[in-house]
Amino acid sequence: MGAFEEKYSTRGRARLRFEMMHGGAISNGWTGNRDLARRRRRYPLNLHGVASMPIDWAIIPIILVVAVADAILLAETSFRLEASSQLRILAGLIPLAVVLVICCRWRSFPRTTHRLAHLARTVLALVLFTNAVSILSYILTGILPLPRWDEALATADRALGLNWLDMYLWVTRYPAIEASAHAVYMSLGPETLILFFALELLGHHNQARAFLLWFIVSTIAALAIGTLVPAAGAFVYYHLPVASTTGYVAQWADLRNGALCTINPLNNQGLVIFPSFHTVLAVLCAYAARPLRILKIPLLALNLLIILSAPAMGGHYFIDIIAGTILAILTISLPGYILSGKWRRLNKNMRHGDVPVFSSK
After folding, report:
1. pTM for this entry
2. Direct distance between the N- and C-terminal alpha carbons of the chain, in angstroms, rounded to an integer
3. What region, left, alpha or beta, does residue 45 occupy, with left being phi > 0 and alpha being psi -120 to 50 degrees?
4. Cα 34 from Cα 11, distance rounded (Å)
5. Does residue 113 lie within any of the structural domains?
6. CB 54 within 8 A of CB 117
7. Same domain for 257 and 175
């Protein structure tokens, strides 16, 4: 009986591969095209080749939890939001995004409209989360002024045989290299937006949602670590003049000593030194760009340059870069571990002919 079950399971997998190659149903009781489309909607392909539920089930609750945490902390602390004109513009754009998302549900709309709806949903979630988490970052930095870890981070660099100050002095010795490194370092934000637009408009909706989930999870993880392991950065530790003109240094210090209590989420600075979130996001961008045949190699090169520029331009210790790389790899691997139990259940379903069909988009 065991040999028969193994043979039957092998045939089931062969039929599954046939379905994936030809995009249609086969005979002997297999579902028709309409049911095939239903299964593809129900089981989109995640980036590990595992059939999974839509990623929205994780994204929306996380954003709501962060927003609720902001509301509670704003009510219980002395921090207040600045009612800027940018926030009012953002509030006015939300209804337009909601309309586009609703349009995605009607098949009568052309494909372009559906892709615009997917893009609007992704950008809306991205904007809401980044604003909510920036507020949370500022409040946590102000209410939890834990001891600085700069000495430990600099010691870790020296233990690895890396001298941050020598590297920085070498970069500043050549103005052209310094200017190029600064431009590369500042390109990460526009690159992230361009990547989201490209993935959604070219139809790689699952890839875009996975990228958004990685961004959200890694941001929260970096914020948690950075709150527990606060650091002023290498600019301050080595008493460099550039520290006085670096935006995040002054804001970080003012939040910790209570001088800054008004928050404008659209005029915020990254306050986390360890791990380097620039490194985290650069690794995520390089990995998420894989379906884009024309852009994936240039983006890979750009993100490598961003990582190389992070110590000198962002005031990050070398150990921050290593920690950011590890965090990005763990974030990318997360869906595979979460869905491993579902994959085992799907293998059992193959023996009974109830095989979900995978879709690449």
Report:
1. 0.75
2. 38
3. beta
4. 23
5. yes
6. no
7. yes
